[in-house]
C-alpha cells in the first residue's frame, strides 16, 4: 500500500471518523464539539476525521478505542470464514478496510498494533484465494463488478473493499492476457519451465 500525499485512496481512508476522548483541557478547539464553548474539556468525546484524530493522538491530546470494523467480533467472523465477511460494508460501500486499518495501526502501541496488523494479514491471506479464483473465472465474461448478485462468488464480489477491487480488476486483465497469449494463432504454446 502506498502512503502518498496525493493518493486518493489514502485521502478516502483518512477521512473516516473516530470517536476520540480528549485527555486534557484544550483551549480554542471548542468548535470541534459543535457547541458554543470556546474550549474542549478533559474527557470530552468528539467525532473526528482520522487525519485529525491521528495527529491529536500522536501528540497525546486524545485517545480512541479500536473502531468497530476492527473489533473482536469482526476478527472472530474473519477467523471463521474470511471470504464470507463483507469488508466493504464495514467501512462504507467500496471503502478501504485494509488501508484504514493499517493507518490506525501506525498510531497504536506495540501489542494492539501487532494484533491489528495480524488481523489484517490473516484476512487478506484468507480472502486472496477466493479473489484470485473469482477474477480468473470472470475474466472472459465481463469487465466490471456488478452491484449485487446471487451465489457465493457474487456475494464475495459485493463485499470486496477497495484494495480487493483493484486486485480483482488486475486479476481479470491478467487472465485475459494469458488467454489471448495461449490462444494466439489458434495453436497452443508450450510453457517453458
Automatic annotation (TrEMBL):
It is found in: Nucleus. Its main location: nucleus. SUPFAM superfamilies: GINS helical bundle-like, PriA/YqbF domain. Keywords: DNA replication, Nucleus. It comes from the Eukaryota. Residues 6-57 form the DNA replication complex GINS protein PSF3 N-terminal domain. GO terms for cellular component: GINS complex. Component of the GINS complex. The GINS complex plays an essential role in the initiation of DNA replication. This is DNA replication complex GINS protein PSF3. It comes from Papiliotrema laurentii (Cryptococcus laurentii).
